[in-house]
Structure formats: C-alpha cells, structure tokens
Amino acid sequence: MTTTSERVAGSRARQASQRVSQSVFDGSRLRVVLLVDVYDGAQQQFLEAYEQLCNQVASVPGHVSDQLCQSIENPSQWLITSEWESAPPFLAWVNSEEHVAMVEPLHSCVRDTRSLRFHVVRETGGPAASADQGKRRLQTSPRIGDGVIRHALTFTVKPGSEEIVAKILADYASPEPQVDDTTRLCRTSLFMHGNRVVRAIEVRGDLLSALRHVSRQPEVRAVEEAINPHLEQDRDLNDPESARVFFTRAALPAVHHVTAERQDTQAERYALHYPARPDRGMKLAELLARQDEAAADDPKSPVLRSTIFQRDDVVVRLIDLRGGLEAADPVQALGLSDPGQVAELTTLQDGAAGASASKDGRLARFLELARMDLVTDRRSPDA
User: Fold this and answer.
1) Which of 22, 282, 333, 342 has minimal CB crowding within 10 Å?
2) Would you place residue 358 in the very low, low, confident or very high pLDDT band (cuts 50, 70, 90)?
3) Comparing C-alpha atoms, which of 318, 243, 303 is closest to residue 267?
4) How many beta carbons lie within 10 A of that of residue 97, not counting itself?
5) What is the spatial distance between Cα 250 and Cα 205, in angstroms, rounded to a whole number?
6) Each residue of 98-109: b (16+ CB within 10 Å) or e?
7) Within 10 A of 361 (CB to CB), how many other CB atoms are there?
C-alpha cells in the first residue's frame, strides 16, 4: 500500500503552480549564507568553535559542504556558506535542539549574525560542474513574490493562564509600522490553541530590521514582560543569551505561501493548528502545500491565500477565506481530503472520539479541533 508520505515525495517532480510565491518543497538545492561579526580579538576562538561545529554538521543528513571566509577588509567580518541537498533537511536540523546546542560555543565570541537562505536556480562551471548538475537539482524557475516576508513565533503558556495571556496580548497599542525608509510592518495576526500562542507577522522590506524595531517598542516590551510569568519556558529579556535562545526556539518559519488570482476584500483570516505525529511535521506541511496549490487553481475554492508554518511537529496553516469558516466545505478549509491522511500524519484523530461515522462528519470534526482562537488581527495603514 502506498502511504501518504510516499505520495507526497513522489509529487516533487511536478511543476509548482505559478501562484506559489514561496515554497521549500520543490526539491532544489539550498545555499545558506551566515554573515558573522566577531568580537575584536576573538577570531581564533571563533575559528576553533567553527571547526568543532563543522565536524558535527558534516554528519547531518542532507548536508553537502560548507566554507568559512574572512573579510579582506575587516578581519572581524566572516562569512559561512553551506550547501544542502534541499531545504527540508536543513530546516529539520536548524530548528532542532541539536542545533541549539551545536552553535552555543559560537555565541560567546560573536557580536551579531544574519542568516540568509537561497534556492540554487542556475550555476556555471566547467565540465565536472555540468555533469554534476544532472545529479543535483536546480530550481526550475524563479518565484514571483509580492514583496512581503511572512514569519511566525510560537510558544506555550502555563495551563490555566490562557485567558489572562489572551487579554494581555489583545490589549496593547500597536507599534509604529514604519521601521525605516525600506521596511514596514504590514500585518500582525495572533491566535491561541489551548495553551499554544502563534503570532504571525507580515513585513515589507527586511524581516530582521522589523523584528528588532518591534522588540524596542515600549508597548511591546511591556506586553512581553507581562506574559513572562505565564510562559512554560523561562526567559529573561534583560539577558541577551536567554532572549536569544527563547526566540530561536520560538521561531516558526513559513515553508509555503500561495495566493489565488481571485481576491475578496471581505475575506476573513483563520489559523488552523495541526499537531503532527512525531517526525511527520514536514510531510504534513508538504501535503497541505500541495492541496493549497490545487485550491488556488480552483475557482470554487474559498481559500484565497494560504501560508503554512512548520517547525518540528508544530504545523500551522494561516488562511484567508471567502465566506467564513462555518460556511466552507470542510475538505477545502481543512486542506486534507481523507480521514486516513489525518490519522496518519496528525493527532487530531486522537481527540475526535464520538465524531460522525461519515467522512464529511469526521473532517468537519477535525476542522473544529484544528481551529485556533483569534486574539487580534491588526493591519497597518496603507499595508
């Protein structure tokens, strides 16, 4: 019998929809660039920490190679590049606790870092490189984006504190949307599912600049301090290392975004939380991505936009829906067409005792279980 995961893997060869502006699932190679600013006098310490990290990452599945470069103009500036067979194995590693432990020695000698990730679209080289292109896949065509970067953060709060946290997160003044001449906050959508919080943001310009801008705003800082006592993971925002580790673990990257040609200014935003079975998060996200690609080509589908966020076994799908969730077809709204898919990849089945025996009834129940509660959805003027 062919499993859902095998069907998903076999679909990678299919040409992606032109409506997909972002995806990690096309199977092409990935180039990761890490810009590093090392403390003065700590270059040797940094080099030793890198050598240790290099030896460890060499055994990570999907890793191909890496390089370490030092600036010829400023010895404090370094560049680390690595190549991966595709994006999913890199994301599985970089979002793991193993990675958090691996990079810890670097942070004592680094002033600042910036990570950039690129699919390899084209390359040039000699005969050996040309022969190798047949084995190592390039992206077939460039993506056409809308200039908006999508990112999310997720964390859990102590059971019993959900109502208090929701009120804190809903009752705050919005920060200034204009970050600088090139960066602007467009939208912030905040949802809760049980004791899990998900904050999705949309930025036009530079994501890192926007995140730093928001963290410096007094109103945002006050909210973060107010929820600190309720977090399951302790953090001290006055301790840079504590804050860094917390937000590293909270990062919930967008792995796929698709927009249908049809639009509706009255579309409503929803978030669905799909608790994945162990080690099935990436496969689940990929299946949802394929379903949303098909929905974007279907004029009858109520799903106008979809962004899928995934980290480990946490999968969140943010959708802009025409006509509201209650009126939508459960299959189209849930993004999964078969209860068997739900049972294989998620734990939603485990909480659906007593659901209707019919297929539609079970999918409607799964949709109800996945639906997150909206806390706040804010758009900046002219976004």
Assistant:
1) 22
2) confident
3) 303
4) 9
5) 22
6) ebeebbebbeeb
7) 14
Count of other CB atoms within 10 angstroms of residue 337: 16
User: Strand 148-156 to strand 268-275: parallel, antiparallel, or no bridges (unpaired)?
Assistant: unpaired
Distances (CA, A) of 348 to 155, 275, 315: 20, 7, 12
Percent of the chain residues past pLDDT 90, beyond the cut: 59
The residue written with tokens 């010895």 in the block is: 75
* Whole-structure pTM value: 0.89
Asked whether 42 and 49 are in contact (CB, 8 A), the reply is no
Beta strand 148-156 with 196-204: parallel, antiparallel or unpaired? Answer: antiparallel
Q: Beta-carbon neighbour count of residue 351 at 10 Å?
A: 14
Nearest to 319 by CA among 336, 300, 306: 306
State residue 356 phi and psi, 5-degree precision.
Answer: -55, 145
pLDDT, position 130? 52
Of 355 and 143, the structure prediction assigns the larger pLDDT to 143
- Cβ neighbours around 364 below 10 Å, total: 18
CB 370 within 8 A of CB 272: yes
Q: Give yes or no for a contact between 151 and 253, defined as CB atoms under 8 angstroms apart.
A: yes
Q: Which tokens belong to 54?
A: 């290099």
From CA 130, how far away is CA 174, in angstroms rounded?
Answer: 52
For residue 240 the two structure tokens come to 């840079």
User: Given phi > 0 = left and psi -120 to 50 = alpha, else beta, which region is 324?
Assistant: left
- Range ranked top by mean pLDDT from 29-38, 172-181, 358-367: 29-38
Tokens of 271: 């978030």
Which burial class, exposed, middle or buried, applies to 318 when counting CB atoms under 10 A from its CB (0-12, 13-18, 19+)?
buried
Considering Cα of 289, then 86, then 37, then 71, what sign does the dihedral take? negative
Q: Tokens 């068997």 map to which residue?
A: 340
Q: Which tokens in the block code for residue 214?
A: 């928001």
Q: What does the buried/exposed string (b/e) look like for 193-202 if buried means 16 or more CB atoms within 10 Å of the residue's CB?
A: bebbbbbbbb
Structure tokens at 98: 């193993």
CA distance 373 to 371: 7
